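From the pipeline queue, job 12 of 40. The input is one protein chain; the requested action is below.

Action: predict structure.
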Amino acid sequence: MILEATRILADWLGGQLNDYAGAPQGVNVQLAWLRDNGLLDAGDPMPELVKAVVDVTRDNWAARGEVDPNGQFPCLVVGPDGPGDWEAQTRTRVKRDAEHVPFAVRYVTKNLNTAKGEADCWYTLRGVVRSLEELLRYENEGGPRTRNQTVILSGTALRVGPAYMQLGDAAVTGGVVLELKLRDGKP
């Protein structure tokens, strides 16, 4: 369930999955929505669009807790962020649920120590939250929230905040942790 949820989140945020109506709702779509709806402070330029969304199951650098120094920035790194609460007994069940399974979406930039870089981080994380809210809409359960019999049923908690970790000449400057309720339809 961890692998599928990680990949669903990364593909959704990167715009590779569409919602129930066939429209992408990834982070860059949400950044444009913030701009188009007057939700940037007066005088603030449009945040730099996210150039890449990688995850720990398909990117060797991310799997090692690093970023490709030749990669595209800013980027988002998606991966599990700790253990969840899993049903222990499944012999008499046709499914297994897990609750409070945390996944992190980290914003990585090379635009360090600048007010613009800091503002871009927070606008982008606002876009991430909007995108995740779209993913978690009821209408999306049967489509983009399902992979290999694993379903993201709902979000159970959401935390947004600063996080700093130097990664070569780039750094994680903030992140979102989303706790999910998952279901394995073929345990």
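Job complete. The radius of gyration is 17 Å.
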